[in-house]
Amino acid sequence: MDSQTIPIEAALDACRRAQFGMTDIVRRVQGDIVGAFGLGPDECPHRIMASGPHWRLREYGDHDASRALLIVAAPIKRPYIWDLAPSVSAIRHCLRHGLRVYLVEWMPASRKSNAGLAECARAISDCIATVAEAAHCKPVLIGHSLGGTLAAIYGALAPESVRGLVLLGAPLCFQPATSPFRDALVSLVPPDLPDADPFPGSLLSHLSALASPSTFIWARLMDAALSVADHHAMEIHARVERWALDEVPLPGKLVHQIVEWLYREMPASVPPP
């Protein structure tokens, strides 16, 4: 009985993951439709300064600025939430205030680039070294969402290499009962999560919405309702929603280690870069 049950459960799990993989594609197509109405990303020019198996380092703006900022984007979606349009762009705002801006862009996961926490920390380390050499200064490290979690881990490992650390909406409550989101996420994700295959971004989004509906569902609906009477606000909301549909697969190894190492086991440290 057991010998038959395990393959069936594995097959069902593979089918569910394949279904969510197709959901990634469907959601990106929906995003493309929204973008066809002129609500797609309108990013400012940049160049690729360095790259690795699962990441690229973008460089923006004035090379003569004396201060540097390195953004760690969230790997679950494309990084243009930082640069939606000329009127709504954190990157353009920083450039106008005399900063040299760099961004770590995570590439969609594949079987050939199954990165974990150590590989992500090493990528950030490589990017910081490249930025420091080019800008002749330590950068301020800033991260959003899961990108903020990765930035915080690196900052804890090598605080002397950065000028400062800024985190926006980064999940950092790992101990039981410290966060309803943490407790709900641990209860929803099975303990035997596989780490070999890419993990669909839409599946992680669904899990996050179930773990914290007030953040991922009701807040978005409330923002839409409050934006209806303001054309500019509604355009921004639509651009953000278009970005939210642009999901990409994450490395299965990364998702497995985040859930097991950070939320379940809470180790004292992450393997150094």
Structure description:
The chain is an alpha/beta fold. 51% of the residues lie in helices and 15% in strands. It has a 6-stranded mixed beta sheet, sandwiched between helices. A hairpin with a 2-residue loop joins strand 4 and strand 5.
Mean pLDDT: 85
Q: N- to C-terminal separation?
A: 44 Å
Structural class: alpha/beta
Radius of gyration, in Å, reads: 19 Å
Low-confidence stretches are 1-6, 267-272
Residue share in β-strands: 15-25%
Can you tell me the number of structural domains?
Answer: 1
| H/E element order | HEEEEEHEHEHEHHHHH
Given the C-alpha coordinates, what overall shape results? globular
CATH architecture: 3-Layer(aba) Sandwich
How do the helices and strands line up, and which of them pair or pack?
Layout: H1 2-39, E1 46-52, E2 55-60, E3 67-72, E4 83-85, E5 88-89, H2 90-96, E6 99-106, H3 117-135, E7 140-144, H4 146-157, E8 164-168, H5 180-188, H6 201-211, H7 213-227, H8 231-244, H9 252-265
Parallel strand pairs: 3-6, 3-7, 7-8
Antiparallel strand pairs: 1-2, 2-6, 4-5
Helix pairs in contact: 1-8, 3-4, 5-6, 6-7
Concise overview:
The chain has helices at residues 2-39, 90-96, 117-135, 146-157, 180-188, 201-211, 213-227, 231-244, 252-265; strands at 46-52, 55-60, 67-72, 83-85, 88-89, 99-106, 140-144, 164-168.
